[in-house]
Design goal:
The complex is a heterotrimer of chains A (313), B (297) and C (382). Chain A has 313 residues and is mainly alpha-helical. Helices cover 73% and strands 0% of the residues of chain A. Chain A has two domains: 38 residues, no CATH class; 243 residues, Orthogonal Bundle (MetI-like fold), CATH 1.10.3720. With 297 residues, chain B is mainly α. Classes of the chains: A mainly alpha (313), B mainly alpha (297), C alpha+beta (382).
Amino acid sequence: MPETVLQAAFPSVPRGGLAAQRVRRAWWMAAPMLLVLAAVGGWPLLRTIWFSLTDSELSRLDDYTFIGLENYVGEYGLLASTDWWHAVGNTLLFTGLSVSLETLLGLGVALLLNQPSRLRTLLRAALLVPWAIPTVVSAKMWSWMLHDQFGIVNQQLLALGLIATPLAWTADPQLALFSIVLVDVWKATPYMALLILAALQMVPVDCYEAAQVDGVPRWQVFRRITLPLILPGILVAVVFRTLDALRVFDLIYVMTSNSRDTQSMSVFVREQLIDFGLVGYGSAAATCLFFMIALLSIVAMGLMRKAFERAAA
Amino acid sequence: MSGGHEAATATTAALRRQAPSRRRFPWGDVGYWAASLLFIFVSVFPLLYALSSSFKQGSALFSPTLWPEAPTFANYSGVFAEQSFAHYLLNSLFVAGSVVTLSLGLSLMAAWAFGRVEFRGRGLLLMLILSASMLPQVAVLSGMFELVRAFGLYDTLAALVIADLLLTLPFTVWVLVTFVRQLPRELEEAAAMDGVGVLTLVFRVYMPLLWPAMVATGLLAFIAAWNEFLFALTFTLSTAARTVPVAIALISTASGFELPWGKIMAASVIVTLPLVALVVLFQRRIVAGLSAGAVKG
Amino acid sequence: MSRIELRGVSKSFASTPVLNGIDLHIEAGEFCVFVGPSGCGKSTLLRLLAGLEDVSAGEIEIDGVLVNDLPPARRNVAMVFQSYALYPHMSVYQNMSFGLQHRKLPAAEIEARIAEAVRILQLDGLLQRRPKELSGGQRQRVAIARAIVRQPKVFLFDEPLSNLDAALRVQTRLEIARLHRALGSASMVYVTHDQVEAMTLADRIVLLQPLAGRADALSVAQAGPPLELYHQPANRFVAGFIGSPAMNFIAATVKSLGDGMVVADVHGMVCEAQLSAQGLTPDEPVTLGIRPEHVLLGQGTQQARVCHVERLGELSHVYLDLPGSRAPLLAKSPRDDIAIDDLLPFELPAQVMHLFRADGVAQARSNAAAAGAADPAAAAST
């Protein structure tokens, strides 16, 4: 009798049932990926937040003192810095302008691509060209095209008589941010269009056929049927693009370097961190950007859930 | 030909006269073609202009003609001779290739766990992985800098490979999870009856079956790593570990007065054309991969 | 020692019971068929044996080893899936060798085993093909070959014929029976919803019934040789499931009880059944059962009107109106000259009548030898 009790308590076969063994194996399989992500995402993020509460500098990373929220609310803290608020304003303006333009144009391009036609393959190929070009390269290409003296844009505009004197697209503080928005729109509209196209292609065909049978005009079909059905898809795309635009770096850094007039939050952070070596202060700025994006993601997720529920109902 | 053609036009003309009100002028078609052509022009023109400029030298650069009058390869040879561009290309290729291999391998293993096994915390972990893709690069910059230095990886390509995984892993995991879920359950069970381990199942059964998805996600990861700028700019210093985007951003003349636009355009064309060719070749798969990551996610 | 032994096996998904209280043993070389309507858990039971699911309670032993927590590969079993589950990217040869290579068998041994399987299943010339280049029947044979090369103690078949067309199904059925004889000591466990497959292939049938959420119900309705389930169904569920067309059931009350004879009353019609009277009481409501092929037409003392006829060629299905019963009595007859509205004499022979009490349990045959065989527990232990 004691033998069977012992056997029940300590089975000689692998511990746990088959399902438990499987779950354990799943953890082993997921572990390498999770560890890598924790090492390159989670840990550095926590270190950045910690650094933001210290006075550490690049030249002496391990020799720092804890200074609390001094980097944020201190006399020379982030919240008192006009440069920082300028960067925040630039980033928000850039994000608002580029995402709304990209959404409108992306919707238009998606509608073009959704049209059955011989042009379709060509259109899709053309769509992927700006998307595939490295951001640094597109920044350079456009910088060249927008060059104040030799750029083709000024030359053509002058030839057409639309402007009287060449415009300094990237040097003029009034214009530079809009030039950057222009390039971003050129580069990111394809991504928007692809996501909206995916949503468009999930609209059931019988919806259109029913409207056609009822003789509903095309514009009405778009407004009353297509748009409400693809709205959740557009919303997802807008959220993705917004979160992406808020952390813009490459484009602005390459086109206008560290110029105050166009500096985004990310450019500001890198300037403080690397160029000035102020790890504590730069980390504080990075932490602000992170929490801004995190907050927005959470709000967006809540909104999207509601939108999806309404679309489903 | 001529007689028949005349007769045909005559009939169509007659038909048109018969039903003039039925067939209105196709404004919609014209609009469609005009918008499409405009879109194609705007998308492709900057690349064409860069291509054109890359064959121009000296004062020819400042003439806006699209077809260079005296085409020259001087910019291309200059880029390779003065900038050791071949070395940067190899660096970029090494970084992007390693990132693709690591991302796909790690994600495929994880995709089995997340796509096929029910375990507690699965949903939460997937959400965390998704949110990692929202992380701004600068938010991890100082922490990563410290890490890179601590492991003695500063100014090495290995630092870039590791850092770039943050950009690729979240979406490769998500896309592969959705594809692994679509595979029939019996395949896994047949493998279990055959007594093969999970690793064999994943790499000998799943991987060959998922190769279209692997190509699409691999290409997306490749592009992400190939184009990465901020980490490369921050974690490398010497030309030995420089990648192509940084090299292009840093091209300048010795005098520092006006940028050598011809060379910059030549370098841009070199890094872009292979990418554009790949993307156009695999356009269907890429579109599917992009939408799978976003819509189903 | 039996090849497979199940003791008190139960399985539930979430809190829904699917299988309950299964005690079963399957001998070496036995061909055992799990059959039952959809939702009875027959495939789940097979997956429990394979090790693809955990048991919720109870023990499974294969070849004397408790395998509850052993992964499929260590159970000495091979499985043929309903969808075949061939690896689509591998050739037929690789499909067979894949598992063997991972067991570190010497190459010559792998070669020999595959050659043997190819010979048995006539797969010559197909070895380099991919599954998608094969017909459904060929895929099925490859799936079986993949099981054979592993030389398991137990073969598990999960509805292997359900994806084949009718003609191929009959042919493959014969092949599986032939294979079973050729492989000798290997046991086969076979799941099907088709009672013809069950009756033709099985040494022993295990008929499972859906639990339908009842916690006290047992999954195994009856286990025994096919003809035993046919002639001595243990309860009404078994009687109704086995046999096609299904058994006629007639509501009746017990009139009088004799020695090995029960007399019942069906709305004034007197029926005798040669059954043990044990436990029955006069005036007890019961259900009489008789198979259509046992109803004798054109003779006897009863008379009934024909309400419908189906002529199948080899025989006819004749439906008779019974007094006080809404369901007509179905009889099989070799005659094809019976017409609707004919008045026919018929007889319900006492020695083939079945009788079920209110709880569905069948009354045992009065014949002592038959009574012994009708007890499923006794049959299972032979």
